[in-house]
Amino acid sequence: MTRSLKNTAPALLILLLLQCKDPYVSPYAPTATGYLVVEGYITGNGPTRIMLSHTIPLTDRDTLKPEINAQLRVEGDDNSAWTLVGQGNGVYSIDTLPLNPAVKYRLRIHTAGNKDYLSDYAPFKTTPAIDSINWAIVGGGIDIYANTHDPSNATRYYQWDYDETWQYFSSEVSQGKYQAPPPSVVSRDINDQVYICWKSAISTSLLLGSTAKLAQDVVYRALLNSIPGGSHRLSYKYSTLVRQYALTEDAYNYLALMQKNSQSLGSIFDAQPVQLKGNIHCLSVPAEQVIGYISTGTLQQKRIFIDYTQIPNDLRYHYLCPIDDHLVTLDSLDFYFAPGKGYTPISEHINRSGMFDGWMGNLTICADCRAMGGVTTKPSFWPN
Amino acid sequence: MTACTNNKATMFATTPFRLLTLILLMLTARTALAQKDSLVTMDMKQARIADVLEELEKQTGRRFYYDTTDFDSTRVDVSVRQQSFTKVLDAIFTDRDITYSIDQYHRVFIARGEAIRTDLPLDFFDKKDSGKVASEREDTARNRQEQNSSLQVAALENKLYTVGEKTDGPLHGIVNLAGYTRDAKTGEPVVGASIYIENPRIGVFSDQFGYYSISLPRGRHILNIQSIGMRDTRRLLMVYGDGKMNIDLRTQVMTLKKVIVSAEKASNVRRTEMGVQKIDIKTIKQVPVVFGEADVLRVVMTLPGVKTVGEASTGLNVRGGSADQNLVLFNDGTIYNTAHFFGMFSAFNPEVVKDVELYKSSIPAKYGGRLSSVLDINSREGNKKEITGSAGIGLLTSRFNIEGPLVKEKTSFILGGRTTYANWLLAHLPDQYKNSRASFYDVNLNISHEINKSNSLYFMGYLSQDRFNLNNDTTYGYGNRNIGLKWKHVFSNKIYSLVAAGYDRYQYNISSKQNPVNAYKLGFDINQLYLRAHFSWFLSSSHTLEFGVNTLRYKLHPGSYTPEGKPSLVVPDVLQTEQALESAAYISDRYAISSALSLEAGLRYSIYSYLGPNQVNNYAPGQPITNDNLINTKNYGSGAFIKTYSNPEYRLSARYIITENFSVKAGYNTQRQYIHALSNTTAMAPTDIWKLSDPNIRPQSGDQVSLGLYRNFKSNTIETSIEVYYKRIKNFLDYKSGAKLIMNHHIETDVLQTKGKAYGVELMVKKLTGKFNGWLSYTWSRTLLRQDDPNAGELINNGSFYPANYDKPHDVTVVSNYRFSHRFSISLNATYSTGRPITLPIGIFYYANSWRTLYADRNAYRIPDYFRTDFSMNIEGNHKVHQKTHNSWTIGVYNLTGRRNAYSVYYTSENGAVNGYKLSIFGSAIPYVNFNIRF
């Protein structure tokens, strides 16, 4: 409820054309932190993936500092234990663990720097199935919701994340492919098409839900994602795979605070950001902060598809490409079509006298779907 | 040659001694002057009087005063040789029904009919003396008035008023004079008027009802009455015994060149209290504010020692106190939320407010229950003589008020209302906001009724409501409701009582219906019933006692969360109702030890009881209050006294006048507070909850010592002061990291009781009269909090002192106004302050597919400094008195330099990356225009 208040106030003020937001660069010297960050879900019905990294100064933008060469062990309070395998990039994983829902599990970490970390025992939470993922047209875009329920009223706290994949086309079909040396354009093989692409993305928001205040453990239309009208996702066919995790109350509170700290600031009535206290502790240096909260349980997932025919035309993605192709004569193929030159061959050009004299080309962004960030390989889950 | 109308007032000497001299002079005037004057020789036939007098002026050097229209048709023959001046006049005027009189300055007043009196009715002399001046005819009308009524309305300055029964005996001993000071035009009381005599120097101030009571030695006095905005006046008194006298004061008509010199007006030097600031609505209205809506609280914020966290907040932080530590009284009713429209406007209608008084250091013993300050906002009583009103239109708000007598001179009312029409603006927004709404209104009704001379009744009602929502999602509403009745009874000149009873309510609710399954309604309210009895006893000229009792019954509904609509699965959750009784008895004495040294000592004893029915959690003693340490829960029945706290509070202040316009003051006071606002937001949010002290949450307490120097310059037109203070706060409520404050059944586990200290220096230079007026204030202050008790739970910032949200060390404000003419003035404000503390991330980490911020210590950084200037022009319509309406315009620019002052800086995760922003509430210069009409 406080969250919507936060959204309300600034929105109104922006509209009064009074409020403004400028980029801010802190004049303060960066603080050295380097605390361990642990993220993962000890999963009972699928592979377990734990990622270790370190906090970095505010100024070191987007340079992930993974913790490699650590030793990770999942321990049950029934003395069961499994060791996770490092992937070399900070990710440690293990195939499906034979977890017992009656047992509590914890994570033990020994880092390459000889520091020991241990999480509290987390009770195993069985996640109920996702009833449905549905969507609706709201205010010029598409909102996607999750619905679920737990007949035993035991779950109460939920977290979701999702993957998105969408199929799209380039504006024009490229029949030719540039190759060198010597600079030439050859006919494109059907298996080498750059007309149809699939692009993927992952959720970047913490998505949490609670039914603690409700008589029944029912999640009705929990908002997961809002896709604005005209988004590239709404080109042809869109799909999202939603994963649902059950949380303990403490885990929920921890993530809710992280959510407030990182996603809900910027209004008049901001709650002040606070220090996070998770369930992982540094045994070697007890005062050291550790970021993250280890939970354990099963996870549930569900995939839906949205076809462009299901959404009104004005919400679909529309191409903005030059209609006219450009003739590239044979002597300037490398000037236009060489990688990085910005043009992609479309089709052979035959002049009035019936002679082949070059390739019609258009902007790569219009002719090669990969230029929009996708891949031409169809994902395995994609329907024919 | 001078032709003018006689101005009697200027003819009087100012001291009894000089008056006496004048009288003696008068008795012998004729002969004395005749001997002294040069002799006159003239020969004029059928001459106009004017020509004759001109010739006389040339020869004698005297000045004549007369009305030319009286004499233009008169022709005289004059033929004199070496005659005395008076003989010449006698010769000219005899048998023409023209009389003349001469005053001590040898000025000659000529009139048709009765002679103009150049002196006083002289009946203050012994009988035998007055016999000598029997030729001066008595003012019979005055005699009638004096005989008919013992309560005289003293309207004339040049008349001698008799107080008490006339006696022949020698006059000694002290008697008392009391009455009301009123505005002659509207009949409303004049508050804070200084009423004093010069010799011996005795002075008092009129109270909130305009009531004054002064002890005087028997005998003849000149009573001086001065009040800001009113014309200085005086009354000539012959005091024989106790008496009553009401004094009507006239509004000061602005004059362009006149400098008002006054001895008492600048009462800051003479008042015993320190740290008291009073601003009247006229000054408030001159100060430019955003949207041009005169704002009581914004002007209070320009005073030294008063800060706020930002532009979207009307929460005051007085001398390092939090916003909930101010007792905001609006005609005796407590206002819990002083903000309208996200804090852009304050809850008080400027058309109804009369003045505002802020006590930040010496808090009178009659007030209690808050640690930092008392902000006493008084509204006007309404015109007692005729129906008048005003209306105003601004960019976002409009207001209307009407006032007048219900029974002439006895009962008056004032009704004011304000509303906003911001919704039209919101309706022009893009589609997704089309259904947004934000509105507020407030209504005031005050009725004052004079039952008889010694009994008056006052009724006050106040209602405010705010409502806003965004696109039909969540609706927020909050409002104040206050109703009160006050009875004033005057027992005698020296003692009067005030009995007030009333009901205050603050409520808010939030509801959301967008998701039918989760649709809810959240409600919160505070209700309080109060009864206060107060006595003022003007014991003698050196002692004024104030004493009384008051009691306050709280009933809080700390939260109810209920389903909204049939499909909602929300389980109704209602927090236990909290009840408490806060009572206090107090006594204070203002003791004038000598004319220089004055002391005010007060004792207030407050008793607070947390009442049943309630369930109270008991925690293991000496352990942090957490769920794990819960021992048991105890049930208390209805009316049970669950926990009682009681404590004496001391209020001391002393003043020593070093020279006429230089004084030093010192003060010490202690305070207790039993109700606390809980907030984890920087600005006071409409969703803040209030919590009563209970067995687990102890009352807040604080004490403050302060010292000040006060010096006035240029005939008291410039006041300067410097005050230093040091303050300690105990059991200040702060929240734990990640505290849940709303709908928490065991809130004690989520809060911390911290210690605080605040200290600072406040400088002020103020000029409230003249063409150029305004003030300059500078404050240097610190406010630091500390939670270092490991047993209380979480240590904040490792147990070291950390700055409070509103700790802004440097703060300079200039408020100025220049009056070009009666009709045109300009105002300019400027303010600079250090940026407030803020918690900034110390690093970032990658979690849930996004970079996120890492926080550590609270308030370790600061936002950029704040600077703003505002400008406004006040244009009045013409000043003809007899026209149906008067109008005025205010045109101005808020934030003239367009500086984007930071309200906050924050970092947020967007599409996986962390971005930093500076949020400004007003990102540019904001012009405004306001139209006001009075009728």
Q: Which spans of chain B of ≥5 residues are poorly predicted at pLDDT below 50? A: 1-36, 121-150, 254-266
Query: How many strands of chain A?
Result: 26
What structural class results from the helix and strand content of chain A? mainly beta
* Ends apart, CA distance between termini of chain A: 43 Å
Low-confidence stretches of chain A: 1-17
Multimeric status of the protein: heterodimer
Fraction in beta strands of chain B? over 45%
3D shape of chain A = elongated
N-to-C span of chain B: 43 Å
Number of helices of chain A: 4
Largest sheet composition of chain B: 22 strands, antiparallel, barrel
Q: What is the count of helical runs of chain B?
A: 10
Tally of extended strands of chain B?
Answer: 57
Largest sheet of chain A: 12 strands, mixed
Summarize the structure in short:
The complex is a heterodimer of chains A (384) and B (935). Chain A is mainly β. Helix content of chain A is 10%, strand content 41%.
Note the topology:
The complex is a heterodimer of chains A (384) and B (935).
Chain A: H1 2-15, E1 20-23, E2 36-43, E3 48-54, E4 71-76, E5 81-83, E6 85-86, E7 91-94, E8 104-110, E9 116-119, E10 122-125, E11 130-138, E12 141-149, E13 157-169, E14 176-179, E15 184-187, E16 196-202, E17 207-210, E18 218-228, E19 237-247, H2 249-263, E20 280-282, E21 290-291, E22 295-297, E23 299-307, E24 326-329, H3 333-337, E25 343-350, E26 356-363, H4 364-367
Parallel strand pairs in A: 2-21, 2-22, 10-22
Antiparallel strand pairs in A: 2-3, 3-7, 4-5, 4-8, 6-7, 8-9, 8-10, 9-20, 11-12, 12-18, 13-16, 13-17, 13-19, 14-15, 19-23, 24-26, 25-26
Chain B: H1 16-27, H2 29-36, E1 40-48, H3 49-60, E2 63-65, H4 68-71, E3 75-83, H5 85-93, E4 98-102, E5 107-112, H6 127-132, H7 140-148, E6 151-154, E7 160-163, E8 174-183, E9 194-197, E10 202-205, E11 211-217, E12 219-226, E13 233-239, E14 243-249, E15 276-280, H8 281-286, H9 296-300, E16 306-307, E17 317-318, E18 326-330, E19 333-334, E20 339-340, E21 345-346, E22 353-359, E23 373-379, E24 388-393, E25 397-407, E26 411-420, H10 422-427, E27 437-452, E28 455-469, E29 474-492, E30 495-512, E31 520-537, E32 543-563, E33 573-574, E34 578-592, E35 597-611, E36 614-619, E37 630-636, E38 641-659, E39 662-673, E40 675-678, E41 689-692, E42 700-713, E43 718-735, E44 751-767, E45 772-786, E46 802-803, E47 810-819, E48 824-833, E49 837-838, E50 843-847, E51 850-854, E52 861-862, E53 866-876, E54 886-894, E55 904-910, E56 913-920, E57 926-934
Parallel strand pairs in B: 2-5, 6-14, 7-13, 8-14, 18-23
Antiparallel strand pairs in B: 1-3, 4-5, 8-11, 9-10, 9-12, 12-13, 15-22, 16-17, 18-19, 20-21, 22-23, 24-25, 24-57, 25-26, 26-27, 27-28, 28-29, 29-30, 30-31, 31-32, 32-33, 32-34, 34-35, 35-38, 36-37, 38-39, 39-42, 40-41, 42-43, 43-44, 44-45, 45-46, 45-47, 47-48, 48-53, 49-52, 50-51, 53-54, 54-57, 55-56
